Fold:
Amino acid sequence: MKRIYALLTLALMLTSNLAKADEGMWLLSLLDKMNYKDMEAKGLRLTPEQLYSVNHSSLKDACIWFNGGCTGELISSEGLILTNHHCGYDAIADLSTPADNILDNGFWAKDKASERVPKNPMSITRVVRVDDITDKMLEKLNGVAEKDRAAKIQELYKELIKTATEGTHFEATCREMFKGNAYYLFVMEKFTDIRLVGTPPQNVGKFGGETDNWMWPRHTGDFSMFRVYANTENKPAKYDAQNKPYKPLHYLPVSTKGIKEGDFAMIIGFPGRTNRYEFSQGVALATDIVDPNIVNLRDIRLKAWKEQMVQDEATRLLLSSDYASIANYWKFFDGEAEQLKHNKVFEKKSAEEKTFSQWASNKDEYKSLLYDIDQVYTLYKPYALQSTYMRECITAPTIIQMSMIGMSLEAMYSKKASIAADKTKSKEDKAKEIAKIDEAISALSKEFIEDLKNVAYNDRIIAADKKIFAGMLKMYYKNIPSDQWPTFFKELAGKIKNGNADEVFGKYTEMVFAKSVFASKEKAAKFFEKPNLKKLLSDPAYAYLKAHFDNYNTNFKSKVTEFQAQSLALGRKYIKGLMEMQPNRMFYPDANSSQRLTYGTVKSYNPKDAVHYDYITTMDGVMEKYIAGDYEFDLPAKMIELYKNKDFGKYALANGKLPVAFLTDNDITGGNSGSPVMDGNGNLIGLAFDGNWEAMSGNIHFDEKYKRTINVDIRYVLWLIEKLGGASHIVNEMTLVE
Structure:
């Protein structure tokens, strides 16, 4: 065990040209041992302690985890938060109605009393410190059987978290690195009183829509603003009108100096997931099977929703958040599959594995590793779509999502029956236990009825849901082997004659929606006022869900779990072997929603022969794309007027143009949305909000030639707040530096 950790430590501390400076998502607590000298040579002007410190304020304190899925940054002494528009989209859409449509019209609080409280809970989380727990974990895991490893890890996590947070208001989470060759504990401070301060209209914050998504050149003002509140002791507290704006340990000064090509740029954020140490078989699985199916399944939802959204404003507002979420990764998976092939990632992974195989040929620990992984993937491949289809197909229709509450209800009724049949218990004890379950059923029912109020499900959405349901049936029929179907589906498919699948699935869909209590919010609420097990089990929507879940749990769940455990164990051994084979290589851990820093430069690129993309876009490009009344490329009238008058104020470039977005070669992924882009002095110069199409393979393979991060220029943000929003008081709250 100590030998493993020694190898890891050596790999972390050594530098080499095998890892490019702009590649990698690095732990801030290790920068002084790993990247600091390289960062300093490229333009960093801060000390390691100014980047990460436990005892003093540092950049880590200003860069926050936003609502568990994005990144944000604190930019004033009064808890002002900047993040992406698409990160605040749910809250903005939820607060919008046809009568008060802040999603389309924008919103700027004139003072703190005017800030909006989101309808659904939100949070921001600050990293307090990071503890290396590798020694403790590996020592306790030494000798643990692979089948018992996951449970043991969770047991150890629980103990370490308790020790780290006992007697404090902090929370903690543990993160596995290098597939289990290292472990870190993150102590966090979580705030839940978050309020909306401002947002541009969505035709600015989402300018370009899905057409421009993942593309450069880009002209999107992708930002929104919130404020975090705390109690009188500056500690986290539930919403209370008496709470005060949070006083951060550190907030970012905002630079109006501007950027030029070659300037140093660093990004701190909470990148979600990468799999850079994936095997070639995993790449093939993604490109050939999984990604294309996800794209086709999501396309069914998007088309059905869009058809209704364009016809009715209320429906558009209800579905806008879900549509944006599904559409974002619909295009991502399409691009990932395309670019994995275009960039020949399978071939590159295969070449790396061949080199490893040659090195490992005389090493007992590793010589059979690649053969073993090939066998694991060969056994898994026939079932590889099962979990994808449970997530993206079976549970995609809203009617089925609503019916999932039935699983909890059925479990409670089953427990009641078990207690009633228990001959070892007295009549009195049974009565008491059954009474408790009845109380739980009543509480569950009331909670579900209340939750139904927030479910988007009007007549138009139901019409779309029918198309989605029927479309998903057809996709399942087409792409899942018949020997993997549940019994009811085999019987349903047996009715298909002479290619009349649409007719058969159409009739089944109409039956489900006609008879299910989950076919409308009103029917569902009425049922849960007096829930009934017999009626639940005979409900066609719930029966559909239950049949698929039972089929998956009985026949495929163990196969998926076994594959995940085996591939993880072999991946852990592979990384350990790579570290032995390349002792001078600087390894970085995959992203896992823990705080990371990536660094690089402002940089243009040439996507193909005779084509050059500049590193910056301007307002001229916004106007070139402008199409009056278009869903994706319309603009506010005031913005057009400001452009005509060239009213750009102090935010204009030397040539009189207004900067909008810029490129860097930083290494980011999902979860980095809203991350601050900072100069060498730690000043905010922009917000990361997207990646580029040519490098969509980035979650699996970093392409040093094409990888770019797309950022909204902070000067464009400031101009939109001040000139378009008329909210100069918000700009004045920031610390501007030149």
Observations:
- The mean pLDDT is 94.
